[in-house]
Design goal:
The chain has 12 helices and 7 strands. By secondary structure, it is α/β, with parallel strands linked by helices. It folds into 2 domains: about 210 residues, TIM Barrel (Alpha-Beta Barrel); about 60 residues, DNA polymerase, domain 1 (Orthogonal Bundle), CATH 1.10.150.650. It binds adenosine monophosphate and manganese (II) ion (MN) (3 copies). The site of adenosine monophosphate (AMP) has 11 residues, from helix 7 and helix 8.
């Protein structure tokens, strides 16, 4: 969707921008097409206001918000990257694989994501049944009221309903009490396989990024026996190319830890807020620290159109 033509002056500007850090990147966030609370247009406008120069919309398992986001990014003179965040089951764990620079019309990606989404309705029903067993009754309808795209009903919509109905004080405490793995409303689910998700992304011309690696239960004895090195080795052998080093939910110690892993496994590094909405997320759009020195940015060889050219488009 992004114009490929790029003139020499533009190239020079991009090279200069890399050196002097004129471009600011936020390569992970969510709109109402999945579990964000802002429309793609509102989200892009917010990013522009906060000085983001290059952003990717990465809705869970869904591509339908990309066209609106792109159109708005053009109006704001921002670079826009087509993205997605695919839900994956790997052994006992749920992983998220971000795809950047994907082609949203690539048939295997479109069909694969349709298949991944198709289980969400039945899962939501089971979640409501499990919550009823611990005295939280009649929440399915309330959760659906928080969706804009009912095909993408998920845990966040349940959480928002439980907060709104006064049963929990905020989204985080709903997850801690009811929805995180091991809690009463958690329903195990079979998502895409790691290799399928990476194949769909790469087949469409995109880059596969392991999202927020610090959030997985991998390496914690109570949750199974896999280690982070085993996960990264398999991610690389399936064709994965980058690690999300700077993300809203990582601590500064985790930026350093995952920058080291990226170096060890020859992975590029990505960054993104994982913003879902005002007053709900760890970080706002564009509010991210620099990546640790030594990281090879995932955008190092991207040929981004100069911002002025985008504005005129
Ligand atoms: P689902 O795809 O329905 O399993 O929902 C996953 C989404 O739930 C994630 O993308 C986050 O937006 C949200 N989520 C997961 N864990 C937490 C948590 N501990 N606190 C707040 N939100 C969470
Ligand atoms: Mn989410
Ligand atoms: Mn995620
Ligand atoms: Mn996300």
């Amino acid at each position: 969707m992004i114009p490929l033509s790029i003139n020499c002056v533009g190239r020079l500007l991009v090279i200069l921008a890399r050196g002097i850090k004129v471009l600011d990147y936020d390569l992970h966030c969510h709109s109402t097409y999945s579990d964000g609370t802002l429309t793609p247009a509102e989200l892009v406008a917010r990013a522009a206001e906060r000085g983001v120069k290059t952003m990717a919309l990465t809705d869970h398992d869904e591509l339908d918000g990309l066209a609106e986001a792109y159109a708005t990014a053009v109006q704001h003179g921002m670079n826009f990257i087509n993205g997605v965040e695919i839900s994956v089951s790997w052994h006992k764990y749920t992983l998220h694989i971000v795809g950047l620079k994907i082609d949203p019309s690539y048939p295997p990606l479109v069909a694969g994501l349709r298949q991944v989404r198709s289980g969400r309705g039945a899962r939501a029903q089971k979640m409501a049944d499990e919550l009823a067993k611990v005295g939280i009754r009649g929440v399915l309808e309330g959760a659906y009221r928080f969706t804009t795209n009912p095909n993408m009903i998920g845990r966040t919509h349940f959480a928002r309903h439980l907060v709104e109905s006064g049963q929990c004080k905020d989204v985080k405490s709903v997850f801690n009490r009811y929805l995180a793995q091991g809690k009463p409303g958690y329903v195990p689910h079979q998502w895409a396989t790691l290799s399928d998700a990476i194949d769909w992304i790469k087949g469409s011309g995109g880059i596969a990024v392991l999202a927020h690696p610090g959030r997985y239960m991998v390496g914690r004895k109570s949750m199974g026996s896999k280690t982070m090195r085993e996960l990264l080795a398999e991610f690389v052998s399936c064709g994965g190319q980058a690690l999300e080093v700077v993300t809203g939910s990582h601590t500064p110690a985790q930026y350093a830890e995952f920058a080291r892993y990226a170096g060890e496994f020859g992975l590029s590094c990505s960054c993104g807020s994982d913003f879902h909405g005002p007053n709900e997320s760890y970080r706002d759009m564009g509010r991210l620290p620099d990546m640790p020195t030594g990281c090879r940015p995932v955008w190092a060889d991207w040929e981004l159109p100069p911002l002025a050219e985008l504005k005129a488009a």
